[in-house]
Amino acid sequence: MTHPHPRTIGGLALAACLLASPALAADTITIGIPVGLSGANSVVAPSVVQSAELAVEEINAKGGILGKKVKLEVADDGSGAAGAQKAFDSLIFQKKVDVLISMETSAARNAGLPIVARGKTPYIYTSFYEGRSCSPYLFVNAWVPDQQVAPIIDYFMKEKSAKTFFLVGSDYAFGRGMLAFTKSYIEKKGGKVIGDEYAPMDATDWTAIISKIKATNPDALVTSTAGGAPNVTLTKQLRAAGIKAPYGNLAVDEGTAKAMGPDAEGIYISGSYLTNIDSPANKTFLASMDKKFGSNLKTPNDLSVPQYEAVYAYKAAVEKAGSTEAGAVLKALAEVAVDGPRGKITMSKQRHAPLTMYLGQVQADGGIKLLSTFKDVDPGEQCPNLK
Q1: Three-state secondary structure call for residue 268
Q2: Leucine-binding protein domain: from which residue to which, for each copy (predicted)?
Q3: Which helix (H) or strand (E) holds 81?
Q4: Model pTM greater than 0.90?
């Protein structure tokens, strides 16, 4: 037996590594999650990552997607435009992710979309938002104003006899878009908006706006701030100022409400997910989350549950397409359905989803009392020009 030259052994090893690397890459499907671990969304982002981790663990335990293992790449987008540009660029062009799935601020989403188009990467957006964001690469499985606003305004007008409204928002696409729709809806229903005020996304001092609310004394208050931290500071200061008007928050999720503590009691919310949805799928999901994360579990909510379902929607689309090729997956995303904690979700209406919506009120323990249910609410005209 002859012994190969040592350099030959090294060469064979190097060749083997070079041959193995593409094969290893081909055996993995990578999901990119750009999300606000810092900034305005930092209150809720950890719950979003947790739900994605559970979905991937469950999928891998059953053989992955098309026999390939699924992994996550998480990047902090800082909840804003500049951070999103870095996060999207890194995930798409350096990490070479197959898909992006995440909730984000509208500022981050808008900054990331041109990078998504350049990288021709499918993107499932899992955050409620102001609506009408359209891209050939974008699908949305969360609510828009057309689905969310009516339950709160109708309730205030009918049950609280509200005629005058004061609106408060963060000064960016979500805050202004949500409240423009809300103002239009209030006026269409015969109500009057007697004030609408906006503060920067990272605002922490709401004193001037609260003074205006007290001076106008509205029948009801509706807010739409950047999800997470601004909700906490605004609500705390509203309570400290003694404002008693019925308060509808268009941007608070169940997890953030719990984080607010006693200040959140009495807030009215409208959304597509509550932890007390009484269904086998939701009970199984909550039990699985509790088993996986235990005392570290962040409250599942209307931002994290769509994330969990979107991972399964991507799985279904890839399996229907028979590959991770972007064009085939994008076509399939409009056709597949996911039965998850929120029920059956299909992103079939101009790349948005009809959703069952819930009107609830935050209780003293941070839980939500369910007041009304609205089945399969249509998202309306969102992206009619996209084929």
Answers
A1: strand
A2: 28-366
A3: helix 81-89
A4: no
Give the count of alpha carbons within 13 A of 174, CB side only. 28
* Cross-strand bridge partners of residue 30: 71
Nearest to 303 by CA among 363, 351, 263, 256: 256
Q: How far, in Å, CA of 361 to CA of 248, rounded?
A: 9
Q: What is the rounded CA–CA span in Å between residue 190 and residue 384?
A: 29
Amino acid (one-letter) located at 357: M
Quick check: 342 and 355 in contact, CB under 8 A? yes
> To 5 degrees, how large is the angle CA 341–CA 248–CA 46?
45
Helical spans, DSSP H, in the chain: 6-26, 45-61, 81-89, 106-119, 145-159, 173-188, 207-216, 229-240, 254-260, 280-293, 304-321, 326-333
Phi, psi of 114 (to 5 degrees): -60, -30
Q: Alpha-carbon distance 189 to 90, whole Å?
A: 46
Exposed / middle / buried, residue 212 (Cβ in 10 Å: 0-12, 13-18, 19+): middle
Query: In a 3-state reduction of DSSP, which class is residue 330?
Result: helix
Given a cut of 80, is residue 13 above it in pLDDT?
no
Distance between CA 316 and CA 336 in Å, rounded?
A: 6
Report residue 142 CA to chain centroid gap: 7
Q: What is the pLDDT of residues 172-211, one digit of tens each?
A: 999 999 999 999 999 999 999 999 999 998 899 999 999 9
Task: Count the residues in the chain.
Answer: 387
Residue 177 has a CB neighbour count (10 Å cut-off) of 20
Residue whose entry in the numeric block shows the structure tokens 């990467």: 121
CB 206 within 8 A of CB 199: yes
Count Cβ atoms below 10 Å from residue 63 Cβ, excluding itself: 10
